[in-house]
Structure formats: structure tokens, C-alpha cells
Amino acid sequence: MIYSELLFFLGVLPVSVLLSFFDRSAEYKNLILxxxxxxxxxxxxxxxxxxxxxxxxxxxxxxxxxxxxRKKSSPAAAALLLADLLMNAGVFxxxxxxxxxxxxxxxxxxxxLIPIGAGYYTAKGFSYAFDVYTGKCRAxxxxxxxxxxxxxxxxxxxxPVVRYGDTExxxxxxxxGGKALSDGLSRLVFGLGKIVILAQAFHRISVSGLEGRxxxxxxxxxxxxxxxxxxxxxxxxxxxxxKGLGLMNGFDYEENYRDISFGELMTGYLKSANTTLVKLFSxxxxxxxxxxxxxxAGAGALIGCVLIALWYHISRMYLLVGLALGALLLLERLxxxxxxxxxxxxxxxxxxxxxxxxxxxxxxxxxxxxxxxxVGTLFGRGAAGLMTDSFGKTLLANIWLVAAAxxxxxAPVRKALGGLLARAGKSSSQxxxxxxxxxxxxxxxxxxxxxxxxxxxxx
Amino acid sequence: xxxxxxxxxxxxxxxxxDLPEMPEECEESEKAIEAxxxxxxxxxxxxxxxxxxAVTLLACAAYFIATTSSRRFSDEGxxxxxxxxANGKFTAEISKRxxxxxxxxxxxxxxxxxxxxxxxxxxxxxxxDGSNTGAPGGNNSGSGAAPGVRETQKSSSHxxxxxxxxxxxxxxxxxxxxxxxxxxxxxxxxxxxTVSTExxxxxxxxxxxxxxxxxxxxxxxxxxASTTTAAPQKTDTSPSTSETELPPEETPxxxxxxxxxxxxxxxxxxxxxxGDNTSExxxxxxxxxxxxxPEEE
Lengths: 459, 297
Fold this sequence. Notes:
The complex is a heterodimer of chains A (459) and B (297). With 459 residues, chain A is mainly α. Chain A has helices at 6-20, 26-41, 47-69, 74-96, 118-134, 143-151, 164-172, 178-210, 217-248, 265-270, 275-285, 294-312, 316-340, 345-360, 368-378, 389-397, 399-409, 411-426, 429-458.
């Protein structure tokens, strides 16, 4: 089960939210959250329940052990942290990347047994042990609080990788106010709209541009841009839904993405997505000795890029993309940031978009030769013209959605529009009510459109 | 205070008299009133937002539950047992029935198609060949979203040779997802139709022979067709002195009226492993019907 399934947000979600209102105590809310999370995670994959309980018990024991040994014997605590890392890495490889095991292997699991969200689950588990080791948070003695943190279904699809120290106050005491509920519902619906409508529009455009019978120059450029946009809106849509779910349950997580900016060149661009996971890797790799040195920091960035790329998917192309991005980040740390930092933002944007387009485009292909062929079509080699009719028609058939996506993604435009609405609402009480009613009606209409679209695709 | 006047004293003044100077309103009270007004506006908008969206969500949930509940929990084929719950089959069957029993599917698809007409210029999305996924944009892999989303769609597309955008007869662009039904002329792997015709032979005719003509048509390029003719199989009917030779063991496939029999087979070349589109739900292209058997007449 995933967030954008009808069965989830028209079945599990309303039941979970309504049940949590029956009592104000945090213990009751935690119990409801645990039960619905286990049902969500194990839907169709019941063995995941065993995985949840076993790893929570292991994290609980390891956390207490690290906390007890941290001051007495640092090497012993480090050994326990390493054991936690190996445990989470094993679970991660077995469940999140089970495809690396051949069919004949005993470790190869059927699709029905592979749980969803093992990647973020194990990242959270390790972050807890790491924070206990570094002293950022204390070891939790109440296993149910730890279980609430580990299994909560809010952030298993697309993060964030919340740290236990940030979540603990909410686990122990939280309340759900009207504003949080309202913001949570709106955020949930907008996230759903990004996934169901915007991401699918870009998918249609990318398929038309990249998998058509004849490749064209504009189709290759815009098709890949559409693929990257599809990834962006799918990911940020899931993050918005996760944020909305958290708000509706009284949690206030940090954002797992930020507006795309070109001021920090490629380093800032890559940090705009999955920010909490990047932060976790930075915290871990930043503890390496000599990380203050530019070259060592750059090498750490290279290693981090490779690890994060493989975290998404273990394949040769992802490894190559990680290496290429990491090399670029290393060069930026060494001298490129000083060289390009003085350029105007427009030129920085050209630099970032060009390199990200060519490098990240490798994620689309299975082989380097396909990627090379596509790069050739970008500059006319092997392309059958500037643009094909079919691609043009597909682009036109989704042009309003492309414009809406641009407004969503482009921070200056979005903020200007938001400022315009806010100024319109401040003029009088009636104007404020009118603006808020328009927003509400738009949100409700978006929800209905998403439900109809999902039902049409499922029917 | 000296400036305070009682009501009686105020009433003694006539309208033309200079009234004593009234104290100005405190600025802070004005700000407090403004803050209270904006707060009440905000709370009213929050209340409206919650009610409208929650009611819409619950109404949609109630509609889907009500229209699918009767067949979703039916005991037929989905009996509850701890074993079926433990291996996930019970919940998987509930999901399957929930999505397969959505009420008014044609009407919903029609509405979705009309809504998609507003997405741009020149046409919308064709939902008539949709498959039962119900969950676009998410993936079932364990690592997470972002490029993982594409991986799921790519893996299915590699099995099924992702279709390109096809133009419909009305000139609008219709794009199908990799997991959707692929019409025969839109697939990129080659597909051939083979028609073989056997000319019957007459055992009484010493000069008759059996000829098999095979015509292979490439459906991607119908103009190109290849025809092969098997070598005629001659029968030796010359009488022997001692005994009469029996006719060959091959019996005629034609009737006595010497009508050619036609058998039609359809082959797929360069076919990858069948994906989900080979299931009954996605629908297969219909095979050409064999001609009527003359013997039945």
C-alpha cells in the first residue's frame, strides 16, 4: 500500500485520524498510530510485522548499550554502533534491494514479501543509534515510544529521516489543533495532486519524447526535462503527503525538500531533494578526521554522492551517475565555486541545468551506450528533425499542467502569487473570507479530480 | 477625572454648544481590535477549510466503500483465516476486489477523460485502456521514491515494449502507459500473421498433388508479405502387376468438393517475456476468425 492509493487515503487514513481523536492522551494516539502503521506496512506483506518487531527490539537494546558504554569505553560503543550499521545495512539490502540476489539464491524474495519503505526505515533506525552515540539524544527506555518513532507510516515512503531527538517531544505529548489539521489536509491534497496529475503529465511527455519511434532534438531535451520533473513532483508530492499526515497526527516534521536554487551551484541543487537523508550522510561522513580540509570535504561529498545514488538503486548506471555528480561537487569545493560564484544567477542556472540534465539523465537508461546515444540526439546526432508531431501534440495536450508545475516549482513566481493573494485578503474581512473560500474550493476540487483520476485508472 | 462628565450634564448641552474635548482612542486598542478581527477571520477560514475538505474526503470514502462493500467481503474465494491473513492473501484479495468493483467505471472514465481535456490544448488522456493499478506515482520497491518511481515503470516497460504516442483517428494524441493494453499496430516488436492454405488433392486424379501455400504478413508493414509454397507432393498411382497400391497415408484435408482448407496461426517474433498485458484483464488483440468449415453446410 502507498500514499496515493485509493484504499489508503479513502480507507486507512480517515480511520486512523478519526480514531486518534477519541482520546487526548499521547499514549492512546501512539497506540492508534502503531496499529494503523503496522496494518499499512504489512498490507499484503504480513511478514513485515516480524521485521518491525525484531528490528525495534534490536534498536532498543543497541541504543541502551551505546548509551551505557559511551562514556566508559568509546571503542565498545563504536563497536555497537557498527553492529547497528551492519544490521540496518543487511535489512536494507535484503528488503530494499532484493533484486541484487539472483533467483536461485535463498535470499531472493518474492515481490509479495518485500515491504515498502525499508530504505527510510533502516535510515531512521541507524540515525537513532548514531544520535545516541554522538550524544544528540538520550537512549529511549520506553520501547513503545521507540516503536512509535520507528514504525510511523508518515515518513516511510519519501522520508523525512526524522531524528529521534526532534520527534521525542511530540511522541510524549502532542495535541492536534484546528490550524494543524487544516494545514495537514491541504498539504495532503496538494501532495496527492502533484503525484496523480502533475507527475503523470510529465510522464506522458517524457515517454513521448524519449521513447518515440523517432528521436528529435527538442524531444530529447524536453523529454529528459520531463523525466526529471516527474521524479521531482513524485518525490515532493510524497513528502507533502507525509508532512500533511504528520500535521494531522500532531507531529511537525522538518521539510524533506526545499526550493530549487542555483546560488550554491550544483551542491545546492542536489541538496534540494531528500534534504534529511543528505544531512544524515553529511553528519556521518563529516565526523571523518580532516573533514575541515577542502579536499577531504570534497572527497566526502564524492563518497556521499555515490552512496546516496546506490541507496536509491544498485546498478552500474546509478554508480556512474553518483561518481559523475560527486566529481563535480569535488571540483566545486576545490575551485569551481569560487570561479562561478561571481556569475549572475541566470548563468549559474544554465550551468546547473545543463550538467544536471546530462548527468542525471543517466538515471533513465539501463546502459551507458543508450545514454551516449541520447546525448548525441541532444545535439542533433541520430535525431530525425527538430521536433516530431506526436511530441508536439503531447506537449500541447498538457501545456496548462506544465505551466502550473512551473508556478509550483519556481519559488519567486509562487511567492509573488502568494503575496498577491495575501494582499488581496488583507483589504477587508470579506476579502479575506473570499480568498480563503476560493482556496478551499480549489483544494476540494483538486481532491475530487485526483479521486476520479485514480478511479479511472483502476477501473 | 475632571474631564468626565455625567450623562445628565451632557444632556444639558445643546447641539450647537461646543462639546468638551473627547479623549482619543488608544492606539493599542485599535491594534488589539484589528488582531482579534484577523484572528477570527483566520479561524473561520480554518473551520471552513476543515469542514469542506473533510466532508469531501469522507464522502468519497463512503461512496467507494458503499459501492464496493457487498462484493469485497464476500466469503466466496476470500474466506478469512489466520493462514490467509498471515500470508497476505486475504488483504491482497480485498484490495483486488476494491479496485475491480468500482461502480460506474465507464462513466468515471468518461468524466476523467473530459477533465483531462482541460490539461492542455488539443485533447486529453485516453482512459479506455487503463489497467488496474490504482496507484500512479508510487513504487513498490523498498528504497523510496524519486528515481525509484521510474524504475517500476521502466521495468514494466521493458517487459512490454513501451508504446509511443499514437494518433487516434480524430487527430488527438493518446498516450498509453507501459502497463496498458498495446494495440497490435502500436507495439514495437514485430508481429506476424501466417496463413497457410493447403490445396486438396483428389485421390482419383493421378495428376493431383498437394501444395501448401504459406503467406506471412508483417502487421507493422502490411504491404510486405512473403509467400512460400511447399513443393508439391506427387502421388504414384501407376498400377502394379501384382497388387494395387493403396493411396498414400496422407488423407485429404478438404471435403469432396475440393474446397481449400485454411488454417490461421498467429506468431509473435522477437517477443519478450509476457508481462501483465498478457492477462485476460488487459485484453489481447482478437485473433482472426477461421473460415467456416464447408462440411458443416
